[in-house]
From TrEMBL:
It is found in: Membrane. This is Urea transporter. It is a multi-pass membrane protein. The keyword Lipoprotein does not apply. It holds the Pfam family SSF. Keywords: Membrane, Transmembrane, Transmembrane helix, Transport. InterPro entries: DUR, Na/Glc_symporter_sf, Na/solute_symporter.
Length: 470
């Protein structure tokens, strides 16, 4: 056991203190929730500061704090730069968020848009893709909680995974989106402060020249800007990040929840603030060789380097930062996915005449169910975080063009939109297994674009926007 590992008692104290704090705050924020709009969309009137903070904090997740260092450890300079390009998803979604609020002022989910714009077939394909992605992201967050505890403390993987899930499920259950957004605001401050401090210590203790010399001697390919697989990853991650945000109800629910005129500004600001964070967290991983660290798994390199630099106190510090990053994403995903299941499956298919009060109860039950399902799958630990997340790239990249054209191009029909999503997903999965994870999103997005273009060229119909507003 390394000298920076936290004792199990210390780790449990941190978990209990933070868990109780978030749960009590969630209860306090949600005590005045009276309607489904209050619970699911925070009253549809979230201001600029909270909107920006929740968008940025939600995107700072296990991807940024654990997977960005992992990919930098594997792909070098292109790993950190490629991950930073996920900021384009937030930036490019900014104008879409304003348009979404305009077109669907009373909308609840991304599924609402797809159903009304394209019809049932495209909606079914979209829901399957959305739920596959949501489960993959939830499982990766649960896994990240387990990996965090097992790499920084004497507690086991299952304990860490269970703790993050239980805490997030309870305060999301109690407070709804209000609790999610308010905790995200505090968590974003903790995350940014922590990441900047760790990077500063890394530069001060190890230094750019030492890291460069060590990498040049032992792993020169990590500094090679012509590293083929890394270049492919760079472009793949651009489309993956855009697809993640464009399709996910996490971001659509916020577009509906933000006050009028806030969505565009908040998403743009959040993207610009988020962009340098993966570069900073990725850079930390490059110091692993200089510190003579050999992580048992690549997705543990970030916390191990940071803890080695800061010692036992640093391990506590890193624990808090990464825990905040995981919680800020898991609570958002639990809330948004429960909304999608409640509104698109229960209300639209199973109980069409359900009252708002009944749907509110269903929504809460779904949150608990999602937590249990995530625990069961994450306990199996079937893949690394990077492999699991990039598997979903084939799914989400296929939705980019159907969504963009659905908003801005009235000629695309539901049949071609459904075909683009299904064919793009299948082609991306074939590329994932036959070539590598770093091409799945590119292939999926390219084929989806081709099918959408064919559909537009051959279409003789025009969608009327006033019907969507109604």
């Amino acid at each position: 056991m390394t000298d920076f590992t936290l004792a199990s008692s210390d780790a449990l104290v941190i978990l209990i203190v933070f868990g109780v704090a978030w749960i009590l705050w969630g209860w306090y924020l949600g005590r005045n929730n009276r309607t489904l709009d209050d619970y699911a969309l925070a009253g549809r009137n979230v201001g600029f500061a909270l909107a920006t903070a929740t968008a940025m904090a939600t995107w700072i997740t296990s991807n940024t704090t654990l997977v960005a260092p992992q990919l930098t450890y594997q792909f070098g300079v292109w790993g950190m730069l490629g991950y930073s390009m996920a900021a384009l998803g937030l930036i490019l979604f900014a104008p879409l968020a304003a348009k979404i609020k305009q077109l669907l002022p009373n909308g609840f989910t991304s599924g609402d848009f797809i159903y009304q714009r394209y019809g049932k077939a495209a909606w079914m394909a979209f829901i399957v893709i959305s739920l596959c992605y949501a489960l993959g992201w939830l499982v990766s967050l649960g896994m990240a909680g387990g990996l965090l505890l097992s790499s920084l403390s004497e507690l086991g993987y299952v304990t860490g995974m269970s703790a993050i899930l239980v805490i997030c499920v309870i305060y999301t259950l109690l407070g709804g989106l209000k609790a999610v957004i308010a905790t995200d605001f505090v968590q974003s401050i903790v995350i940014i402060s922590g990441v900047v401090f760790i990077a500063w210590v890394c530069i001060d203790e190890v230094g750019f020249s030492t890291i460069h010399t060590n990498l040049s001697a032992s792993q020169p390919e990590l500094l090679n800007l012509l590293f083929p697989a890394a270049i492919m990853f760079f472009f793949n991650n651009v489309f993956f990040g855009i697809g993640e945000i464009f399709h996910s109800n996490v971001w659509w629910s916020r577009a509906f929840a933000f006050a009028p005129s806030v969505g565009k500004r908040s998403y743009l600001t959040a993207g610009l603030l988020w962009l340098p964070i993966p570069i900073v967290t990725g850079f930390i991983a490059l110091a692993a060789g200089s510190l003579q660290l050999s992580p048992p798994s690549a997705d543990m390199v970030g916390p191990m380097v940071a803890a080695a630099l800061l010692g036992k106190i640093g391990a506590v510090f890193i624990f808090i930062v990464v825990f905040s990053a995981l919680a800020s994403s898991m609570d958002s995903l639990l809330a948004a996915t429960s909304d999608l299941l409640t509104q698109d499956i229960v209300k639209r298919v199973l109980i069409p005449d359900a009252s708002p009060n009944r749907l509110l109860k269903v929504n809460r039950l779904v949150i608990v169910g999602l937590g249990l399902l995530t625990w069961c799958v994450a306990a199996l630990k079937l893949a690394t975080l990077g492999a699991l997340l990039n598997f979903t790239g084939a799914f989400v990249a296929s939705t980019i063009w159907p969504i963009v054209y659905g908003i801005y191009q009235p000629k695309l029909t539901g049949g071609f939109a459904a075909g683009a999503m299904i064919a793009g997903t299948v082609a991306g999965l074939i590329g994932y297994f036959m070539i590598g994870f770093y091409v799945a999103a590119i292939i999926s997005c390219a084929l989806s674009l081709l099918i959408c273009q064919i559909g537009i060229r051959h279409s003789q119909t025009f969608f009327t926007w006033h019907s969507l507003k109604e």
